[in-house]
Amino acid sequence: MSAEATNPEAHPEARPELRRRSRSRLDLRRIGRAALLGPPSRDRLPDAIGHVAEAHRAHHPDADLSILRRAYLLAETSHRGQMRKSGEPYITHPLAVTLILAELGAETTTLTASLLHDTVEDTEVTLEQVREEFGDEVCFIVDGVTKVEKIDYGAAAEPETFRKMLVATGNDVRVMSIKLADRLHNMRTLGVMRPDKQARIAKVTRDVLIPLAERLGVQALKTELEDLVFAILHPEEYEQTRALIAAHAGENDPLPAIADSVRAVLRDAGITAEVVVRPRHFVSVHRISRKRGELRGSDFGRILVLVGENADCYGVLGELHTCFTPVVSEFKDFIAVPKFNLYQSLHTAVATPDGHVAEVIVRTRQMHRVAEAGVVALGNPYTTGEPADCDEERVDPTRPGWLSRLLDWQQSAPDPDTFWTVLRAELAQDREVTVFAVDGVAAAPRTLTLPGGASCIDAAYAQYGEAAHGCIGARVNGRLTSLSSRLSDGDTVQLLLSHDSSSGPAADWLEHATTPAARIAIGSWLATHPDDAASTTTAARAPLSVVGARGGSGNAVADLPNAHVRLAGCCTPVPPDAVAGFVVRGGAVTVHRVQCPAVAQMRAVGRTSVAVHWRDTADCRVTLLAESFGRPHLLADLTEAIAREGVEVVSATVEPPVEQRVRHTYTLQLPDAAGLPALMRAMRDVPGVYDVSRA
């Protein structure tokens, strides 16, 4: 495959947003010749890294370039005589990688490590020399990149490859920034390799590196990697998409005119904003064409509005929705609710009077920088001033929640195949939720970041690790719920653990667990406790019922002569509840609490309403629901507690256990309605009972 076919940037009409007006395209061959001629005098910056210095100063005007000069001289000297497969001097590769990062706004330490990232692996330079010359930070990053680069990228080695890559990334996210830029330059020059090797590298890039770039928020790298992979793995569809873009370039594009209208609207509103048209990259155009079929002229790009402050974003949105017709279904607010990868913007779509629909993205300039560069735009996250040790792990204050989860569960993955499977599943997640876990003791809840669709089971393992094997219930936002319940952003979850150390997860927990940590822990427990696992899956069986003598009306009286009165079993009213009576078949009067849903149903079907009042006698009948954790002798203990209160059990029903939780339903005859609160407290005090409520 030709270099042009593997590089969408070879077609400027397809990616005009990537052209640099302020400087020409980097000439790798010119830099290579400069490298072969040897270093210049030590009193000036080498010509070969002039592009790097220019790009770096654009983001960091006060940056000290002397360390870059020293790093380049060491890299050029140590790589001298080495050639790439393309025939260019090897120094062109670290220079190109460093330029990519400089254009994204990486800080000086990252650029220094990027220039040196292959020296320890491919030359006689040692880590100790790097440390002495450039300090601990650069040493730490170079060591991390070197460990990743040493790994064989053969198909059989892929799982262990990316396990080590994740560990290196977790120790310093700048390691992965350099690795992604390294892969981008290699993909740009992949045309010199055999087609089968191109395809293998492209598949690895597609499966793991592109999702990692998305997770780290480095959209500028991610989109170009997608296009390069698309060209290699789907050459026919790539050529069709390129032809579509080329054909559109000669047509009348409606987006510039729409952008002019947006500028005029914002100018009249007094909002200072920069409005530009951003063409879609190849893969984006391909996706839109598959989704919509025939493409409209406005489908080949989007309008980007850049403002100064967050409040201006919403001001722009208001003007757009006032002066154009908004497409409501296309509105998304990623400023109030940022994506998991730091991305913030307002997305909307508006229709013009002549029928064109344009997608609009509104963000501040700082949001734009982070959207393009992700973690690269964060600068140096290690500001404690403490020296780094190349052999020690440290905590990254900018480490995203998804990365922390990967680092946690990769240590527990039983084998490379399991690791590889769950890694790809985890990277496929495109949404996160934040929940607040309380344990009933700590003053402040713990914040848990989980993938979208996570259940209470996932929260349990995220909070307690293997101790979550004994989880038997959960309260979400104060209400009891099943462990399989899915969590939403902002939920407060309290996880209930059994005191029985032999408790373990049920086999069906795997159906509701989504995080790798939970699935690996559950699977390991089930594999080592096959007999216990079988016993935790309870077969459906009929409820256990105990029925005593049944009474009738309690002490309710209907204002209807000779009418038979009975208390409704659905709500079991007791004095002094407000009640309503209705005549049913046979002339009987059924008494409900006025809040009972059956009251509205009775009125809707035209049942005759009858006034009902309570007798002076205080005895009453009530139905109570007791929620509890399953344990031996629970029914006997509950019945004893009820008897101690002098209450008669009319009937009792015990439902089969579900997730180690049991529900008891009691119909009780009380000698005095005033004793109901004390009865409910006594039932709640029985060990294992966590809730008692009226039916």
Task: Describe the protein's architecture and organization.
By secondary structure, the protein is α+β, with helices and mostly antiparallel strands. The chain is 42% helix and 17% strand. It has 26 helices and 22 strands. The strands form 5 sheets. Strands 1, 2, 3, 4, 5 and 6 form a 6-stranded mixed sheet that branches. Helix 1 packs across helix 4 (92-104), helix 5 (108-115) crosses helix 8 and helix 9 (158-171) crosses helix 10. The N and C termini lie far apart (73 Å). Mean pLDDT is 77; it is low at 1-43, 152-157, 384-399 and 534-551.
Largest sheet descriptor = 6 strands, mixed
Tell me the helix content.
40-55%
Can you give the mean pLDDT? 77
Q: Report how far the terminal alpha carbons are from each other.
A: 73 Å
Task: Estimate the strand proportion.
Answer: 15-25%
Would you tell me the structural class of the helices and strands?
alpha+beta
Shape: elongated
Number of helices: 26
